[in-house]
Write a structure and sequence with these properties.
This protein is 25% helix and 34% strand. By secondary structure, it is α+β, with helices and mostly antiparallel strands. The protein folds into 2 domains: 30 residues; 89 residues, Nucleic acid-binding proteins (OB fold (Dihydrolipoamide Acetyltransferase, E2P), Beta Barrel). A hairpin with a 5-residue loop joins strand 1 and strand 2.
Length: 155
Amino acid sequence: MADIPNRPADVTDTSATDAAPGLPPEVPRRSFARRHWGKLTVLTLLAAPMTVFALWALVTMSWSYSSGQRAGYVQKISRKGFVCKTWEATLYTDIAKGFRSDSFSFTVRSDSLAHAIEKLSGKRVSVHYEQHIGVPSSCFGDTEYFVSRVETIPE
């Protein structure tokens, strides 16, 4: 003890014997993480996949692989789904009047746009779409084509 400068000679280390006589010494309190390690593990196992799913959905829905427009006749539009209701529609493109070449299925996110497409059903229209590849769930739509605008085309 004499080797430590500025320390009185009569001071002794009593950290292990601070408890009152006859009582056991106090045990230091464990950290929050050590006390709740099981709950934190379960929370991490649940939160990590949910975070990955949310980031995946955010990226795929905000980034567009392609965009364009298709012209034809809207033959069908309906609101589908048990839990996640989405508007799904089919547009038939035509080569010449009365001849169908192929169908184009698409999803509509907006209710107001879906109602506008319903009113134009059976008329020649042009739909502007964006293609989102890798959308993680059918809750966002059954197709990867999402229509953002519709215009009528005079016949």
